[in-house]
Specification:
It comes from Leucobacter iarius. There is one protein chain. By secondary structure, the chain is α/β, with parallel strands linked by helices. It is built from twelve helices and twelve strands. α1 packs across α9 and α9 runs antiparallel to α10. The longest helix is centred in the N-terminal third of the chain and has 19 residues.
Length: 378
């Protein structure tokens, strides 16, 4: 029987439809080559749909819940007040679907330029695991005396042991399948209460994983060490806000937002996980063909691994790296090829089974191996 997967596709805004279109072309090639199929349904979520209907995530929740995975483009438009789409759709989906772990590989691929002098691919191959549903992003806060000189704004950060434990346990499992090193990144000398809870959870769970070495780095020190010595890190686990910041720093190190990828994982199988490139909607270049689709296509590789299509995931990653390494620039007209052409090049390599495994000696499957429902707590 042919393997089949239900995929919800959310192209979104700006360059989202362009890069997702490339990812779907590569998915077609992977299906033809590796003998599985997907049933896809596309949803018109995003700025234009919101402006026309006022609908956000709540109106799509029941339909999306039936998918095996979600492939997401980008969301954001100058016509929509900042925060409406981000909180009303993206954060709402993460929380309602309990996509507890945001997983972002930070890999410098062969042939991809980096602003860090002397950095080589062998030194830059880590994964940042960000708690994805709590912290400062729970949306709790208030303002009094707004619009006056006495305005006061309060913003809450929520940390629960249950929320921390599930993502730390996932990070330990991930580290156990990689180089067996886990680093907690926080700010325990200032955020004492939250930091202590995170440290307690890491210390408690470390007894279940005696083969994994643990250490701790302040978030400001992480911003120093990450670009200068990324080889120090294997798996980094951190809270929602700190993770949002240091993963963008990681993206710069690996060549820019256009080549970075992420997974938003539901860890108990109760709802679909979502896979997305980490760049924004970039409305200023939408329609120009200047967007690099690699981040979206590597997100497809993560999704395929999550769905159990390991061979296809390896091929998509390797084909993407081959094309990336041939580009004179990673974005803009200097790329030497338009967005759609790059997608077609990658799809052709996958379809013809012409990937070179030597380009990716440690596949993203080192990350994908842990993208499974977590085991029950002891």
């Amino acid at each position: 029987m042919t393997r089949s997967h239900q995929i919800a596709v959310l192209p979104g805004d700006g360059i989202g439809p362009e890069v997702v279109g490339c990812a779907l072309e590569v998915l077609d090639a992977a299906e033809a080559r590796y003998g599985f199929r997907t049933e896809r349904r596309e949803y018109a979520a995003g700025a234009a749909h919101y402006l026309e209907t006022g609908e956000l995530f709540a109106e799509l929740e029941d339909e999306l819940r039936g998918a095996d995975a979600i492939l997401f483009g980008s969301m954001g438009d100058p016509r929509v007040t900042p925060g409406i789409l981000e909180r009303g759709f993206i954060l709402e989906m993460r929380q309602r679907f309990q996509q507890a772990a945001n997983v972002r590989p930070v890999r410098l691929y062969s042939g991809v330029p980096t602003p860090i002098s002397g950095l080589t691919p062998e030194r830059c191959e880590l994964v940042i695991v960000r708690e994805n549903t709590e912290g400062a992003y729970v949306g709790r806060g208030s303002t009094v005396h707004a619009g006056t000189p006495n305005a006061v704004a309060m913003q809450e950060s929520l940390n629960t042991r249950a929320g921390i434990e599930r993502v730390v346990d996932f990070a330990f499992r991930l580290a156990a399948g990689r180089r067996k090193r886990l680093t907690l990144c926080h700010k325990t000398n200032i955020l004492v209460a939250a930091g202590q809870l995170w440290q307690e959870v890491v210390a408690d769970l470390a007894t279940r994983y005696p083969e994994v070495e643990t250490d701790y780095v302040h978030v400001d020190a992480m911003c120093f060490h990450l670009p200068l010595a990324p080889e120090r890190f294997d798996v980094v686990v951190t809270d929602n806000l700190f993770g949002d910041i240091i993963t963008d720093l990681g993206a710069v190190i690996q060549g820019g937002l256009g080549v970075a990828t992420s997974a938003n994982l539901n860890l108990d199988g109760s709802a679909p996980s979502m896979f997305e490139a980490i760049h924004g909607s970039a409305p200023d270049i939408a329609g120009t063909g200047w967007a690099n689709p690699s981040g979206a296509i590597l997100s497809l590789a993560l999704m395929l691994g999550h769905l159990g299509e390991a061979d296809a995931a390896r091929a998509v990653e390797a084909a993407t790296v081959e094309v990336l390494g041939s580009l004179p620039a990673l974005s803009g007209p200097e790329m030497g090829a338009a967005t759609a052409e790059l997608g077609s090049r990658i799809a052709a390599i996958v379809r013809d089974d012409a990937t070179d495994p030597e380009l990716v000696p440690n596949s993203l499957l080192g990350t994908l191996a842990a993208l499974e429902p977590s085991r029950p707590a002891a």
